[in-house]
Design goal:
This is Dephospho-CoA kinase. With about 200 residues, the chain is of the alpha/beta class. Helices cover about 55% and strands about 10% of the residues. The protein has helices at about 15-25, 30-40, 45-55, 70-75, 80-105, 140-150, 155-160, 165-170, 185-195; strands at about 5-10, 30, 110-115, 130-135, 175-180. It is globular. The two termini are about 10 Å apart.
Length: about 200
Amino acid sequence: MARIIGLTGGIASGKSTISTMLHEKGYTIIDADLAARMVVEVGQPAYLAIVEEFGEDILHENDSTINREKLGGIIFNSEEKRKVLNSIVHPAVRSMMLQHKDEAIASGKNTIFMDVPLLFESDLTWMVERTLVIYVNEETQLSRLIERNHLNRQDAEARIASQFPLKDKVNLADAVIDNNGTISETKEQLEALLTEWDLQP
């Protein structure tokens, strides 16, 4: 029976570093952000529903892909429109992730990591058996985000504030990896957890 583990964290907490480590060890990672990009590709059902709802003005003229900035401008200013968009995209993302999970199980994978940034916020813990949170303290998170995204402190703080606080996610998690230290310290914690939970790729 395959084990399904939910991997989550906050912006700039180092979740993608952990994903890369797991991938290198041969584990299957199903990435919600990647699925979210795939479901809105030209011709996909979610894409068609978005165009029908928001009009062709939100498309790039040259290739008919969705202009994220234009769409973002619409939903940023309207809670109602954002809910409409989420009601189209979220079910499509969940459906694609579950499909990829079934394919991985069918191909004989023992452990599947579901990489879902909003695992707790979107009440998606039903999709997984256990949850793993990648944690950093607020100051580390802020400085990494400023450096990675070339943001000023105010913009970086606003992005972090828009998410569920990492320390609250820690309280909900089955396990936590503290990513405040060095890469090798993080790797050691991951190795220990894979052994403790007896997770094979």
